Amino acid sequence: MESKIITIEIDVKNDMKKSYDYIVEKFEVVTEFNLWKAYSEQLLKGERTPMLDVVDYEKAFYQYWINSGHHIRKQVNDDKALLELLTLFFPKYTEKSIVLYRGENLDAYNDKRIGFCWTPNVDKAKQFMSSNAFGSGGVLLRCKCQPDWILSSLSLDEHSRHLGEDEHIVNPFLLRNIEVLDSIASLE
C-alpha cells in the first residue's frame, strides 16, 4: 500500500501561541484519526512543518509519548519503524547499566513483542502487569539493561516523576536475559 502525505491544518489564532502547543495539537489529531503509521513515515523522511522549531518538535514528542506512547505503538504497528522514530526524537541515554522492570501482557511476551517502556520501580511495573493482564494474562519482567540497550531515560521529566514511573525507553530487540518474576491470570 502506498503512503500518502498527511497535512493537518490546525487553526492557530494567537500569534503568540508556542509551536510546542501547535505540535501537541497536531499529535492529538494524528492519534484521533489513527494516522501514526503514515505520519511516522513522514517524520522519518524529515517531513515536518517547516516553520516549527526542531527543539519544540522533540520536546512535544517526548512529552506526548509519556501519555500516549501506547497509542502511537499500536497505530504504527511496526516496532522497527517505531524504534527509528524514538531514536530520532529522544535524547540519548548516557548513564550506566541499570536493572529495569516491565509489566507486560503475557501474549505479547510469548510472541516476543516486548514493549519499549521500562522502569526501575518494581511496584510501578506490577501495576502495569495488572493493567496489561488481558488475553492470557500479564507478566512482571526484570532485565539488567546495558547502556546501549537503553535509548533514553524520561526520569528527568516532571510528569514521568509525578506518575512514579521513572520511565526508560529501551530497544526491545537488544534485550537479553529477561527474567519473568511474576504472572497474573487474565482479568477479563
What would your notes on this structure say?
This protein is globular. Helices cover about 40% and strands about 20% of the residues. The longest helix is centred in the middle third of the chain and has 23 residues, at about 55-75. The protein folds into two domains: about 20-90; about 100-185. The protein has about 190 residues and is an alpha+beta fold. It has helices at about 20-30, 35-45, 55-75, 80-90, 105-110, 120-130, 160; strands spanning about 100-105, 115-120, 135-145, 150-155, 170, 180-185.
Q: In total, how many beta strands?
A: 6
Unreliable segments of 5+ consecutive residues = 12-16
Binned, the helix content reads: 40-55%
User: What is the residue-mean pLDDT, rounded to a whole number?
Assistant: 87
- How are strands sequenced across the largest beta sheet? 1-3-6
> Distance between the terminal alpha carbons, to the nearest Å?
35 Å
SSE pattern, N- to C-terminal: HHHHEHEHEEHEE
Q: What is the domain total for the residues?
A: 2
SS field, number of helical segments:
7
Cα-atom Rg, whole angstroms?
A: 17 Å
Bulk shape: globular
